[in-house]
Amino acid sequence: MTTKTTRSEEPTVGLPWRGRAAFRAGKTRKQRQEQFRAQINFLAIVLVVTVIAAGVFIYANWLQAGSTKLVSCADYPEFCVPFAGGLSGSTEMARFEAPGVRTLDGESTAAPSVVRGINSDRMPFLGNPDAPIHFALMSDYACPHCQNYHKGDMARFIKDYVLTGKATIAMGLLTGTGGQYSQMASAAALCAGEQGAFWEFNSEMFRLAESMGASRAFSPSQLRDSARTMGLDWDAMWTCINSGRYNEVISGYTTLAMDAGVTGTPTVLVKHGQDGPWARISRDYAFLAAETERLNNQ
Prior knowledge:
The chain is α+β, with helices and mostly antiparallel strands and 298 residues long. Helices cover 45% and strands 10% of the residues. The longest helix has 37 residues, at 29-65.
């Protein structure tokens, strides 16, 4: 006797559906065409919504990183100090952060000895030239660690020790991380120095790189928009960038960094007094503070 095998029933699960979802195709050609158009329209809507959401996300991050500021004492009080730049004997940096290049629109709150200018290594500096200790930050605008250090330990050190006249800080602009993008940004910042705005534009470069990435942040159109928003003469800056007059200066920063044994960014260099070689030092705020206090108390 043949026994008929019975199929066990599908187990009940706690879901609102029992089987696999299926799409029922239209029976006629017209129905199938309408279904196809509906699917295409749906995919187009999804794509548009995705693009808009991505744009909102990027814009929100940009806002969170801060908006472009004017070159003014109100927006950049930490850089509102007298100009003492203009490197004698240097054609390309004769007017860099020089006295009279820009009139400050506010009163400095730093120590009377604190100025902004250019040192003998052609690096922009901030602080008291006669301080017993001098630091140089070797940094790359496209380097994420540099961006964090700039707004963290370095900002704190400038407030506590540079603006009080106990030390100077100089900037050496490197391009190993961002390549041509960092080269463009570095040239733009140095060209801004001819209008007495190196330190302000320097901060803008770090902000832009963090908020939108180097390739977008350092495009000519974005640099133009930032310069104009900050109240700078972009036409003069663009002429300066295209002239290439700071290319050798930027290459010199790389040579200086290599001679000092710099292997990555950010790296802080130090020298005691205005003469002598640069040497690597810990970039940690506590270490820099302790070394500065030690030299000032001798």
